[in-house]
Structure to design on (371 residues):
């Protein structure tokens, strides 16, 4: 193909690709999660396909989709509905003054010994009136934000249903035709076969590790923390459990930001057994759960450094919203995988240049005269 024709084709290809991506952007979350769920549940689909003798790919994809609906989607819908109701009740209690974080802080400081008061004053935490006002205002603003999000979910029900339908529809075909789609995608990437295989393998590994590992561990920690809060009679246990689940996705932070202040409040206000039980449960169950489950669900070879996970997760949240919990670490892992392949790619490129070096160049051996 002449150079002008090839460049024109590349320009046309870029233009139509940008136009197509702009059409898909309103549903990027549905498309993204359809691909993520297809990667995670592809082993289940292959197993069902083998059980059916390989003769019913449509039935295997439908059964896998049914399992995904029962295991993932329906529980998430129930939790979201219950959480919206609980957030509305939490906003009502904060707005009416029944739940006053500033008052709780004042109770904690009042129960501490006088020697600790001087230490708090040195850090600017001794002004009870100012701290109480800030906590009360912050709690009210946070509850207003959460209540607004709950209202938005209710108002955008139609859009949510459309996105869910697109995700399920796409997921069915990705499961059924995934074995044929992946080789075609590999051929579109202008890299060496080993590099293409490594990138696709890394993508699948990171997706499974992030969702199956991090999110499952976080959900388990949030569930156990919420159940313990309900056992101790703490109001809004579902909300606090969801908060612990989200915070568990962040290394070096974790669910302790929720249960530690509550345990301290119990101890300083005289509820000793509640505080001791919560501390023991938080340290021995919630805290150690990550160390026990992560090697099983994720594996040592796929774990990103904690600082990379923290920064990429926070960055993903700021750019992509809730989807950033997966997109951020995924992009970070793919970036690190590409840089791992970079030295090998440079070596292969240099070797290729030496192989095609024209005869008579300064580095080529002299030609032998004809006999």
């Amino acid at each position: 193909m002449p150079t002008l024709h090839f460049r024109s084709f590349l320009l046309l290809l870029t233009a139509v690709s940008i136009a197509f991506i702009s059409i898909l952007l309103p549903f990027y979350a549905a498309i993204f999660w359809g691909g993520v769920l297809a990667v995670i549940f592809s082993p289940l689909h292959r197993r069902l396909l083998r059980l059916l003798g390989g003769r019913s790919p449509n039935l295997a994809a439908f059964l896998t989709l049914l399992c995904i609906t029962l295991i993932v989607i329906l529980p998430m819908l129930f939790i979201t509905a219950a959480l919206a109701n609980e957030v509305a009740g939490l906003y009502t209690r904060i707005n009416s003054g029944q739940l006053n974080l500033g008052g709780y802080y004042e109770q904690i400081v009042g129960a501490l010994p006088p020697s600790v008061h001087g230490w708090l004053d040195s850090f600017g935490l001794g002004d009870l009136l100012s701290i109480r006002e800030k906590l009360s205002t912050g709690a009210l603003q946070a509850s207003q934000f959460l209540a607004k999000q709950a209202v938005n979910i209710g108002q955008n029900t139609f859009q949510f249903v459309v996105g869910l339908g697109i995700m399920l529809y796409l997921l069915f075909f990705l499961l059924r035709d995934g074995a044929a789609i992946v080789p075609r995608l590999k051929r579109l990437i202008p890299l060496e076969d080993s590099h293409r295989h490594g990138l696709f393998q890394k993508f699948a590994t990171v997706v499974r590790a992030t969702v199956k590992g991090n999110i499952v561990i976080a959900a388990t920690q949030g569930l156990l923390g919420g159940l313990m809060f309900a056992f101790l009679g703490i109001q809004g246990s579902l909300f606090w459990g969801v908060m612990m689940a989200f915070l568990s996705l962040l290394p070096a932070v974790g669910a302790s930001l929720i249960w530690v202040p509550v345990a301290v409040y119990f101890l300083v206000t005289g509820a000793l057994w509640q505080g001791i039980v919560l501390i023991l449960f938080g340290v021995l169950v919630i805290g150690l759960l990550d160390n026990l489950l992560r090697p099983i669900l994720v594996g040592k070879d796929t774990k990103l450094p904690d600082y990379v996970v923290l920064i990429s997760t926070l960055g993903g949240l700021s750019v992509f919203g809730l989807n950033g919990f997966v997109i951020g670490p995924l992009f970070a892992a793919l970036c690190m995988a590409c840089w791992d392949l970079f030295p090998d790619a440079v070596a292969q490129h240099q070797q290729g240049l030496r192989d095609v070096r024209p005869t008579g160049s300064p580095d080529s051996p002299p030609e032998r005269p004809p006999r």
